[in-house]
């Protein structure tokens, strides 16, 4: 069991970052080290000595006089976890958890990680999946998602680590659907919308097809409520939002084999081409800083069709070299 991994688990628990299922595993682990059937301590005196040392180190108790016997005070779960996290951050007593019971938390951590179902699409791959609550998600190429499949009905939390996904969320007023991108959170009850977590541009774009969507930035507390045809783009570098209108009829066009480009840069076009077709778009002696694209293709028949449109816009040509497309004059 790695000490840094243990610190991460406890810190996430205290900060409320774990799912209900994950918190349950930490609770189970705590019960196992507190249960006399699986003793992490030599005896009762050893338990009291370690407890008092923890409390003193984190400033929640004063050091008793040497001749004074330490009272047998019941230990609350939160106090123990708080103390453990603080001591571990100080580089203190890892022996309490790692020497006396080294396999218990490692086993629980493995089980916790296994709770999150991960789906990754390759570049050039489109994939549709169904979530346990009846929600459908269409994934673009080069996309990575994670969610707790076992407990999803009661905790509809979804991670879009990278890439693009179109959601048709089944309505459940008791359990809001929440998407985490690392930069912003998207919360809905039941609606359809598109989220693009772009790694190359460091933008998170949310476009609403139907219903209402809440987009929140935890860093500055900014919150946008979007309705059909409304969109917002968050810049990670600038830490700000840009709102704009989006044609609701074409937001999910890419899931049906079409393509809609809404005022995007050449850098964004490169990412779209790679995710959609699995090829790298390069240029030769071209200044692409001013390149900008707003167009709609109802049905993309081939990569050449898209490239011909792009080349006609700039009066340039393209050639293929293995897995690369080079644009040139």
Automatic annotation (TrEMBL):
Name-wise, this protein is FecR domain-containing protein
Q: Tell me the ranges covered by the FecR protein domain, including all copies.
A: 120-213
Q: Where is the Protein FecR C-terminal domain?
A: 261-327
Q: What is the lineage of its organism?
A: Bacteria, Pseudomonadati, Bacteroidota, Sphingobacteriia, Sphingobacteriales
Keyword Iron-sulfur attached:
no
Bilayer-crossing regions: 78-98
The record, for Pfam families, names: FecR, FecR_C
Q: Name one GO molecular function term.
A: sigma factor antagonist activity
**InterPro entries under this entry?**
FecR, FecR_C, Ferrdict_sens_TM
Organism, as annotated? Sphingobacterium paramultivorum
What keywords sit in the KW lines? Membrane, Transmembrane, Transmembrane helix
């Amino acid at each position: 069991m790695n000490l840094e991994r243990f610190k991460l688990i406890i810190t996430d628990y205290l900060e409320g970052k774990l799912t209900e299922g994950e918190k349950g595993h930490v609770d189970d682990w705590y019960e196992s080290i507190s249960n006399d059937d699986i003793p992490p301590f030599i005896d009762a005196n050893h338990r009291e000595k370690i407890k008092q040392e923890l409390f003193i180190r984190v400033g929640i108790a004063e050091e008793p006089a040497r001749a004074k016997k330490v009272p047998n005070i019941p230990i609350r779960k939160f106090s123990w976890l708080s103390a453990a996290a603080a001591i571990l951050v100080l580089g203190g007593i890892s022996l309490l958890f790692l020497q006396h019971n080294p396999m218990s938390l490692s086993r629980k951590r493995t089980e916790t990680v296994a709770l999150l179902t991960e789906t990754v699409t390759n570049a050039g791959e489109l994939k549709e999946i169904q979530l346990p609550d009846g929600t459908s998600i269409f994934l673009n190429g080069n996309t990575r998602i994670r969610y707790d499949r076992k407990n999803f009905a009661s905790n509809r939390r979804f991670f879009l680590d990278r890439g693009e996904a179109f959601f048709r969320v089944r309505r459940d007023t008791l359990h809001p659907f929440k998407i985490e991108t690392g930069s912003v959170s998207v919360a809905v009850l039941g609606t359809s919308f598109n989220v693009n977590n772009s790694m190359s541009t460091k933008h998170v774009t949310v476009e609403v097809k139907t219903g209402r969507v809440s987009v929140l930035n935890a860093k500055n507390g900014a919150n946008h409520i979007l309705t059909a045809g409304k969109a917002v783009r968050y810049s990670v570098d600038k830490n700000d939002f840009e709102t704009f209108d989006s044609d609701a009829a074409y937001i999910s066009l890419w899931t049906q084999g079409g393509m809609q480009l809404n005022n995007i840069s050449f850098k964004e076009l490169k990412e779209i081409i790679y995710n959609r077709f699995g090829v790298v778009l390069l240029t030769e002696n071209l200044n692409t800083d001013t390149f900008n694209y707003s167009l709609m293709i109802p049905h993309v028949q081939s990569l050449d069709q898209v490239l011909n449109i792009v080349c006609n816009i700039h009066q340039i040509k393209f050639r293929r070299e293995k897995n690369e497309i080079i644009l040139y004059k």
